[in-house]
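Lecture notes, unit on protein representations.

Consider one protein chain, 73 amino acids long.
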Amino acid sequence: MKRLNITLPEKIAQEIQNIPNKSNFIAEAIKEKIEKINRKKLDQLLIEGYKATKREDKEINQEWEKITLEGWK
């Protein structure tokens, strides 16, 4: 564990005033926020990856479509 001295806005300090284990509460809140940020980064990387391979995927699908439909004509 690492001890930190932090400053909070007065309104937030009042909101958590009655929470018994403030350190644990704040740690969990920070953990959730970090996970949300990391998920957002991963989503963005996946979107960029899909966009980067879009044309290649379309070409492959067109090739397979030709092969698949050969016997149906």
